[in-house]
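Researcher: Here's my situation. A collaborator sent me these components and asked whether they could plausibly form a single complex. I don't have experimental data yet, so a predicted model of the whole assembly would be a useful starting point for our discussion.
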Amino acid sequence: MPEYDFSGKVAFVTGAGRAQGRSHAQHYARHGADVVVTDICENIETNPYDLSSSDDLAETANLVEDEGQEALKIEMDVREEAEVEAAVEEAIDEMGKIDFLANNAGIFNAADMTEMPEQQWDEMIDTNLKGVWLCSKHVGKHFIERGDGGKIVSTSSAAGLVGSPSAGHYVATKHGVIGLTKTLALELAEYDVNVNAVCPTGVDTEMISGFAEAYGQEMMDEMGAFSGPWSVFEGVDMIEETDISEAYMWLSSDAARYVTGIALPVDAGMTAK
Ligand SMILES: NC(=O)c1ccc[n+]([C@@H]2O[C@H](COP(=O)([O-])OP(=O)(O)OC[C@H]3O[C@@H](n4cnc5c(N)ncnc54)[C@H](O)[C@@H]3O)[C@@H](O)[C@H]2O)c1
């Protein structure tokens, strides 16, 4: 594992209750950063599987502390501007500042575009796209006011690079995250802020197991890009949370100081096909 020195830095991670977000929080802590761990800790009506609980978020905070770093736990819905603004203020009050924003929170569900109810569309766009904008807006303002640079990394998807039947709303958000990333990279460059996106292929998390349980294998097979093979490597179907965290760490580090506005596939070759 590469070594980065994040001592004295503060990371703010969304969707940190479990899976990739928890792994990012642990990785930031392992490299010496204190971590603000945030999550909605309740379900979203049109999403068919359970999201993280308060206990899950508390466990992530414990894991950060196990790495010898400070953790601040905040329950926050990325869709709600008042909650995001209050969480960013609390993080700055308690931790002194924010250096890294990790926009990881997201949901995944399915319906054909000609059948999808409006609420399902809206809840997806609000979580996966508006949420990235709201967190970037409020942490971005802090970066500008503080005048000491900053890093924003957001999770797009291989679905930010290709289409997929039955997930047009998800695909639209993940393409949108890349457009937002490029725009923020241009707007924030003069403040020494790097803004990048990561595009994972299938990662073995509760999102995928919850989706598969809700819709069944038939829907997974119909979805083309989201059904196998998700990898060009023999014997590899899905990748692991740590594979995405490693990209986050590099993009948050000085090793990537001149990398901005990119959408980095960590997709086991899936989108090369
Ligand atoms: N798992 C995959 O195959 C895969 C592939 C590509 C991209 N992604 C993306 O990676 C990110 C992390 O996904 P994961 O696989 O860890 O899923 P997950 O469902 O295990 O974790 C997502 C976390 O986000 C939280 N969350 C959801 N809506 C929220 C909201 N409105 N406000 C705050 N928190 C909220 C959930 O409670 C949960 O803790 C997501 O953006 C997802 O779209 C996942």
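Model: Some features of this prediction you could bring to your collaborator: The longest strand covers residues 193-200. Helices lie at 19-30, 54-66, 81-95, 118-146, 168-188, 206-222, 241-252.
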